[in-house]
Design goal:
Radius of gyration: 28 Å
Low-confidence stretches: none
Number of helices: 4
Mean pLDDT: 86
Largest sheet: none
Distance between the termini: 71 Å
Number of strands: 0
């Protein structure tokens, strides 16, 4: 199929955009690896998933740009898009993604503390009379302490 210069430029720019999208996917994957710190096998599986998604994105943009005709400028546009993103946008996007991650993490921790606070207070209030009652009635203190200490959910780590 004969393509004029406008269609070739359009195809090049669409593939440039596709390269940026693939590089963004890589930054998101890099962030997940930073957060989760997976082992070797999980990293390999994640790499395979990333490359499958990257290939799907590449084929989609190749189809949108010039009906999946493989041309040199398509690969050049993809490569330039990835390089431009990595040079200019990747540091900014990673900072933004880390900012959102930290705020979401802090919000979840704060919510957990707010929700669990009444249970912690109830545990502290009820544990004192139970220990006193065990001494008065004569129930072995170890039995009560083992029962109470079995539920370590609300204890603070030292």
């Amino acid at each position: 199929m004969v393509m004029n210069v406008e269609s070739q430029l359009y195809s090049f720019l669409v593939m440039l955009y596709g390269g940026i999208i693939i590089a963004i996917l890589y930054d998101v994957y890099k962030l997940f690896r930073f957060i989760l710190r997976p082992k070797r096998i999980a990293t390999d599986i994640g790499d395979i998933i990333y490359w499958v998604l990257g290939t799907i994105v590449f084929i989609f943009f190749l189809y949108v740009s010039n009906y999946a005709e493989i041309r040199f400028y398509s690969f050049l546009g993809l490569l330039i898009g990835i390089l431009l993103y990595n040079i200019f946008l990747s540091p900014v996007v990673m900072k933004i993604l880390l900012f959102f991650y930290k705020h979401i993490k802090n919000t979840i921790i704060w919510t957990y503390k707010v929700v669990s606070y009444p249970f912690i207070v109830a545990y502290k209030i009820l544990s004192i009379p139970l220990r006193y009652l065990s001494k008065v009635i004569g129930i072995p203190g170890k039995l009560i302490n083992n029962t109470i200490s079995h539920f370590n959910i609300f204890k603070r780590k030292k």
